[in-house]
Structure formats: structure tokens, C-alpha cells
Amino acid sequence: MFSSDTLKVETSDGRNFTLLEPFTFTRRAGGVISVPAGTKSDGASTPRGMWQALPPFGPYWKAAYLHDYLYRDSQYDKDYCDSVFLEAMEVLGVDTIEAHTIYEGVHLFGWSSFREDREAKQ
To answer: What's the pLDDT at 14?
Structure first.
């Protein structure tokens, strides 16, 4: 469950966002993930050619914001980050096929983003 219905963010270009107020995500198993103010996101990393069907800021945007935080600013491994992403999309009520399509895409093809995000923090 997310601690808020909406994200309070700012942007200067409509594509890259900075979180103004923190939020939490409580996992079904009970763990809590806190996303601090200042966290950045560019939405779901769907290929530009698929934006008509899967735009970066669809109904899964809060889950994508959480996933960006996990990739960029946590020490969790990729499998954990991706599984939280899927769970968060399910909690948001994202269509099952849509959620699993996005999850499979990031789980199978997100290695370069995961590595780049981790190396940028070093």
C-alpha cells in the first residue's frame, strides 16, 4: 500500500521529476520502503516506440517512481527491486497483462539501467 494517493513532484521539462514530499510503500509481507523527498524519476522506462500503449506516466507511475528509487538509491539486488515494482503495480490496480508486460520488460532487459544507476552512485 502506498502512503499517499498522489505524488507531490516538480519538473522543469515535463519528463524528469523530483519528489517534494516523501512517501512509503508497505509490502504485502509487511516490509516498508521509504522514498525520501529529493528522489528523481523519469517515469516508466518503456521504449519510445511503445509510448502510445505504455506511456512513461501511466497508471503505474507511482510504482515506477518507487522502482527508480530502488534501482538508483538502495542496496537491494535487481530481482528484489523488480519484484517490488510488480507488487506495487498490482497494488495500484494496474491491468494484470499490462503489469506483467512492463515487469517482464524491465526484468529481462533492465540490466544496463540497473548497472548504470548503481555506478552513478559510486
So the answer is: 87
DSSP-derived secondary structure letter, 1: -
For residues 68-89, average pLDDT: 95
**DSSP per position, 2-64:** BS-SS--EEESSSS-EEESS-EEEE-TTS-EEEE-TT-EE------GGGTTTS-TTSTTHHHH
Single pTM value for the model: 0.91
Question: What is the DSSP pairing of strand 32-35 with strand 40-41?
Answer: unpaired
d(CA 59, CA 89): 8
Handedness of CA 10, 38, 99, 51 (dihedral sign): positive
The answer to whether the CB of 65 falls within 8 A of the CB of 5 is no
The CA distance from 9 to 26, in Å, is 20
How far is 44 from 61, CA to CA, in rounded Å? 7
Residue 33 contacts residue 66 (beta carbons within 8 Å) = yes
Domain boundaries, the chain: 9-120
